[in-house]
Amino acid sequence: MNEKVILFTAGLAFIITVVLSPIFIPFLRRLKFGQSIREEGPKSHQKKSGTPTMGGLMILISLSVATLVVSDIFFERTAQTYLLLFVTVGYGLLGFIDDFIKVVMKRNLGLTSKQKLAGQLLIALVFYFFFQRHGISTVVAIPGTDYSFDLGVAYVLLIIFMLVGGSNAVNLTDGLDGLLAGTAAIAFGAYAVLAWNQGQYDIAIFSVAVVGAVLGFLVFNAHPAKVFMGDTGSLALGGAIVAVAILTKLEILLAIIGGVFVIETLSVIIQVISFKTTGKRVFRMSPLHHHYELIGWSEWRVVVTFWAVGLLFAILGIYIEVWV
Q: Which of 35, 238, 248, 276 stands the most exposed, by the fewest C-beta atoms within 10 Å?
């Protein structure tokens, strides 16, 4: 397999998204699938109310089609391909239900936290079941060292922690036009490089299909956004990046490559702990991207800065794995 296959996969996913978007966006608008904006959010976001959401459906369709078409043409599909698609579509379906409740049933908070957690746990457990059946290693390596340890049966706890925590972390990052699409493209691009370096071409193909799909989506999601991906897209991307990290056996490296997602999550945790213990807020608002908005940064400046930080994290992750 050569680099042309990678470019073909990314290009196919990109084109599918770009072609679908002008069809889907008016359709979502006619169905009145518009985003409701929280009153406690930044005031500048109120003008975004009514922007079509659930655009993550376009990402799911394009990455799935590109992955299946390319794997069918150039190599035999593997169990890992199906595992990746299962987690991605599974979390996407969970996000779709959440979006549907918010938009159609007019319950702004969507699924309850317990309902969402139950869905996330179920998908994680099914993933572990098939993971175990195919005899994938439960050894975890420490990036940049020769040290590793075998978790054995306890690996299921790592899978649950990563899939639940990772999908929520990526979901928190989806707060500004183009923010998640750009940072996700960078993170998946890094894992595509590492999977290719390992000779795991099926995972590399899936990863670049995601890159192409989210870049195609970014054409319509960049500021000012014509469509939002919603939880349909953000939960799917969160589940997908974690599944890729697990199947490439680069679990811990995700904390570096997905550094932006980690920082966004930590900002929420710090804010909640600080307010509950001292009554004071560390940030103007969390997640962190809202803090920078409220201190006067333009939305586009925040997004581009976070993309740059994400790129630095991705380069660092590749450097640690390949050259250290």
A: 276
